[in-house]
Amino acid sequence: QVQLAESGGGLVQPGGSLRLSCAASGSIFSMNYMAWHRQAPGKGRELVAGISSGAMTSYADSVKGRFTISSDNAKNTFYLQMNSLKPEDTAVYYCYSRVITGSLRREYQYWGQGTQVTVSS
User: Contact, 51 vs 35, CB < 8 A?
Assistant: First the structure.
């Protein structure tokens, strides 16, 4: 069993910055893929950034140049640095990871519980 826990959400003014963290705990052999998703009020959940175990990153067009995903595999933790925040970035942000775990070293998918990010003046 693996758990993901987000932190770092909050209220920020447009143009400001926040750094979200996702800490994984449990029996983890490796984290093959890590990502941040978000869900705005009345909208579906969307992928905003992902990073592979080889550090290849991808971003939604709406956040390119503003958000940066990174990972610290030694700490089983990954991050989302959000700069130049806009009101339309307001959403619940969820971390996600595909994790190799257990005695058989099988891959499982895990989601965090979400953290609220509100961008407002």
Answer: yes
Q: 10 Å Cβ neighbour count for 93? A: 23
Place of tokens 């449990």: 26
Going residue by residue through the chain, which has 121 residues, state the pLDDT in tens, using 9 for 90 and above. Answer: 899 999 999 999 999 999 999 999 999 999 999 999 999 999 999 999 999 988 899 999 999 999 999 999 889 999 999 999 999 999 999 999 999 998 899 999 999 999 999 999 9
- The whole-angstrom distance between residue 20's C-alpha and the CA centroid of its chain comes to 7
Contact assessment for residue 31 and residue 53, using Cβ atoms and an 8 Å cutoff: yes
